[in-house]
Write a structure and sequence with these properties.
Layout lengths: L4 E6 L8 E7 L3 E9 L8 H8 L14 E5 L2 E17 L5 E12 L18 E4 L6 H9 L5 H8 L12 E4 L5
Antiparallel strand pairs: 1-2, 3-6, 4-5, 5-6, 7-8
């Protein structure tokens, strides 16, 4: 597990080194190697490694890769799969891989509504939100409701037919959550 802080270097004329100013904490990452062996079964090991690499695919419901929860003992880490490196190390005579190692990196998934540093806002009242460059309905839903999959409520409330077309500066209503 890795975690870092970010600092800005502030140059001052006449000094031989800049001042450092804390800007923000970085996201936590979890890296590991996963070993797969299907030699005894004689199966293509990619049948198993694909289950991990498919976690990089974009979910059409939320227009992003899925949010994951890694649980091991007391560790409970909400994250997304950031990177996968595959290395095949053993093959059948016909060239089919039967042993592989995946180097995986998971990155902490944090939304504003999950942030401990910010007070929680009520999701039971209608709010107005101004679209910014790079916004998507799923990211607004994650921010407003803590759940990116609830983006359809926002689309319906605002008559948005194509959720991929959002104009910066456009003001939309964020409806209250229904039970």
């Amino acid at each position: 597990m890795d975690k870092e802080n970010n600092f800005a270097a502030i140059s001052v004329q006449g000094l031989d080194s800049p001042f450092l100013s804390f800007t923000n904490g970085g996201l936590e990452t979890l890296s590991m190697e996963l070993f797969f062996d299907s030699y005894e079964e004689g199966k293509d090991v990619r049948e198993y490694t694909k289950q991990i690499t498919d976690l990089l695919k974009i979910d059409p419901e939320i227009h992003a890769p899925p949010v994951l929860r890694f649980i091991w003992g007391n560790a409970n880490f909400t994250c997304v799969l950031k990177r996968v490196g595959k290395k095949f190390t053993m093959f059948r005579p016909d060239g089919v891989p039967v042993r592989a190692t995946l180097s995986v990196t998971f990155q902490e998934y944090r939304t504003e509504s999950r942030s401990r540093e910010r007070p929680l806002q009520s999701s039971d009242k209608t709010k107005i939100y101004t679209i910014k460059e790079g916004d998507s309905l799923w990211s607004i839903s994650a921010l407003s409701y803590g759940n990116p999959a609830r983006w359809r409520s926002i689309a319906l409330e605002n008559g948005i037919e194509n959720p991929r077309i959002l104009e910066p500066g456009m003001r939309i209503k964020i409806p209250p959550l229904e039970g």
